[in-house]
Amino acid sequence: MAGRGFLQEVPPIINERIQMLRNGRWQMMAEPVNFDRSVSGVSLAASFADAWCFQYTEDTVGLIPCAEGGSSLDDWAVEGELFGHAVSEAKFAMQNSTLTGILWHQGESDSAGGNYKVYYDKLLILIKALRTALGAQEVPIILGGLGDFLGKSGFGQQCTEYNHINELIQKYAFEQANCYFVTAKGLTANPDGIHLNAISQRYFGLRYFEAFHKKTHILSPLSQEQEFLNRLNAREHTKTELMFMKQVDFALGRLSFEGFLSGM
After folding, report:
1. Phi and psi, residue 142, nearest 5°
2. How far apart are alpha carbons 24 and 228 in whole angstroms?
3. Secondary structure E strands in 34-74
């Protein structure tokens, strides 16, 4: 999922132990992680990685963004561009890192017109091919469900068959080895009625990490999700992170040159 959560609605996650692959280099993560459109925003990746760093205090996490907003499973056909790009990026990253997990969230674009009738078979082919291409038979794949706000308002009104897609994603995760399902129960949407809002993306990332860390399905919201987010947000920043934030503020015109120098 590329992510369309509004950036201004949640505190930014700045953590020097979270890297992202961009322009062929690892750099400190900054949202939007997956810049597929000019409207890209908060996704589940940042809070997933932040929860990882909280749990594994010596790790450095690398995110490999490959999502394409609004894509269907047909767009991810094995011979297609999106699949090829994702495999290429992952293989490039694997030259100096270890592929440890795959986060997958898709389905809104297949939630109408009876597409659910062939969804399971297409997902089966796709993930089998992805594992084979990356030599990743044992790598956990976390698959998230769709929000219950779909089919009701805005652009989401057309997603009337989302419950069928949810059932098939869950069925796939239950039946396949090293796959775990994460519920979207209780999560809420942007005003457009189709994209998860920023705070829901943060919660979703925590649920994804819980599934990854405990190697289990997450079938209900976690207890005290906001409290855990508050703990992550309250972490004291390192000198490197504080300097990064000052550089961003200066580059965006939010800080004067004198103010920038005062923090050096």
Report:
1. -105, 125
2. 33
3. 61-63
* Helical (H) or strand (E) element with 198: helix 198-214
What whole-number distance in Å separates Cα of residue 90 and Cα of residue 120?
Answer: 24
- The SS3 assignment for 47 reads helix
H helices of 56-101, in order, are 81-93
Task: Report pTM.
Answer: 0.96
Within 10 angstroms of residue 67's Cβ, the number of other Cβ atoms is 20
Burial of 124 (0-12, 13-18, 19+ CB in 10 A): middle
- N-term to C-term CA, the chain: 37
**From CA 121, how far away is CA 131, in angstroms rounded?**
16
CA gap 54, 48 in Å, rounded? 10
Report CA Rg, the chain.
Answer: 19
| Tokens, residue 154 | 């805005």
Two tokens, residue 189: 């949407």
Cα 36 from Cα 105, distance rounded (Å): 15
Kindly report the length of the chain: 264
Question: For residue range 115-155, what is the model confidence (pLDDT) as tens digits?
Answer: 999 999 999 999 999 999 999 999 999 999 999 999 999 99
% of the chain exceeding 90 in pLDDT: 97
Alpha-carbon span 250 to 246, nearest angstrom: 6
